[in-house]
Amino acid sequence: MSLPPESIVCVECGATAHLISFLPVDELPEPGTAFAYRCSDCMDRFDMVWEEEPE
Fold it and tell me: What is the pTM of this model?
């Protein structure tokens, strides 16, 4: 299982949105875990729900 990306492309303005929510160091994300990102330019917040990786 992998970890969520540290940054994503903002769907509103195309700038970089950075991860602002984190799990404890010894935990991996489970399906349904929500992660929040905030854009450094437009300041919009995006919540993304973690899904299982395809096999």
Answer: 0.83
| Whether the Cβ atoms of residue 39 and residue 17 lie closer than 8 Å to each other | yes
Q: Measure the N-to-C terminal CA separation of the chain; round to a whole number of Å.
A: 11
Instruction: Map tokens 């935990």 to a residue.
Output: 27
Average pLDDT over residues 19-31: 89
Interval 29-37 mean pLDDT: 92
pLDDT (0 to 100) of residue 1:
58
Query: Could you give the CA distance from residue 51 to residue 13 in angstroms, rounded to a whole number?
Result: 25
CA-to-CA distance for 8 and 1, rounded, in angstroms? 19
- Give CA–CA dist 20/7, Å, rounded: 9
